């Protein structure tokens, strides 16, 4: 670990003082970490989560190392369409998390704010803007974003287009789930494939998209089984394991590789020990660095996160005979689209199926929807007699999270659900 820490310090120093030389060293670290995960996996994790960790590191390391093999996106961009053209989608939110592995998030955030980016903007977006503006992060050839679910998406990608000259496609997602709205978005998706044809020189094949959606349907069915198994079996994972699963469900969904992994996890979990602790349903983002949260949710037999709403933000079957309408419907019906009352209702359905002992809602700094809507979810959980804890913090900027306060509130909450009392904090 001493060598790793020294390398991280070296890369951060290079990024600050010689940004033009730091990108290759960042990629070298990603590739080295990919091989470390393969050869020396984390023994505290189940084999399935070990494989997932390696898969997500490989996605980032391999894509960034091959120019022209990826596009930037937000987490809700339709990766299925990029797959039709043999492109990977790398979301700026996830890339910001990877940059935090070099402890660069504070430098990038400060850099962004010092050049005029609003302090109230989501810290994931500030991290990425700062990375690009500081000349550390190498830009791609193209990007795509949606209006779902963050109001900062369009402004961030417009800014990057203006300052870094990265052209992008914006997908305007309606709130209403009706035929007219689905047709409106489906037409945008068709136009988007034309842009991808022009940029890649490849011809779009609808049959390929249909095959991807069939694989996606099967993956989602298998993942639902996995979450059901987690109600009954102990499956060692860490807080960051759920972040990797969220990445997989949004960036690799529809690939045979990811489907095979979920099938493997379903086989492995059934060989595990019964889980007799408290089952937690996690809402919104995962502050993977938070020490108190890691203490209680990293491979802990007493508390297990059985699911996260951002992993299962869409749960229906896709109509593969009408792939563009199916994708449009998937985006529009996403749990994070529209009013928070819609989200609260869908989380209620998820809780009714998974029967968690408690819900934890993490309100990420800069996310107005999470902070403003958490009370609606609180009321929904009260009606269902499910204890709920609301935690305030930051998914990536450690300076906006107070570990002592989180530890105090979390321990009090876990003690209450341990006694069987119904509470909402």
List keywords for this structure.
425 residues, alpha/beta, four-stranded parallel β-sheet, 8 strands
Describe how the helices and strands are arranged:
Elements: H1 2-17, H2 22-39, H3 47-65, E1 70-73, H4 79-83, E2 88-91, H5 92-100, H6 105-114, H7 123-133, E3 143-146, H8 152-164, E4 168-171, H9 179-200, H10 206-229, H11 239-252, H12 256-269, E5 278-283, H13 291-297, E6 303-308, H14 323-332, H15 340-354, E7 358-364, H16 368-383, E8 388-393, H17 403-418
Parallel strand pairs: 1-2, 1-3, 3-4, 5-6, 5-7, 7-8
Helix pairs in contact: 1-2, 2-3, 3-11, 3-12, 5-7, 6-7, 7-8, 9-14, 10-12, 15-16
Summarize the structure in words.
The protein has 425 residues and is α/β, with parallel strands linked by helices. It has one domain. It contains 17 helices and eight strands. It has a four-stranded parallel sheet, with helices on both faces. Strands 6-5-7-8 form a four-stranded parallel sheet, with helices on both faces. The chain is globular. InterPro entries: FldB/FldC_alpha/beta (IPR010327).
Short description:
With 425 residues, the chain is of the alpha/beta class.
Strand content: 5-15%
Radius of gyration: 21 Å
Mean pLDDT across the residues is: 93
Task: Provide the low-confidence segments as ranges.
Answer: none
* Widest beta sheet: strand line-up: 2-1-3-4
Query: Which of globular, elongated, flat, extended, rod-shaped describes the shape?
Result: globular
| Tally of separate domains | 1
How many beta-strand segments?
8
Structural class by helix and strand composition: alpha/beta
Number of separate helices: 17
Largest sheet: 4 strands, parallel
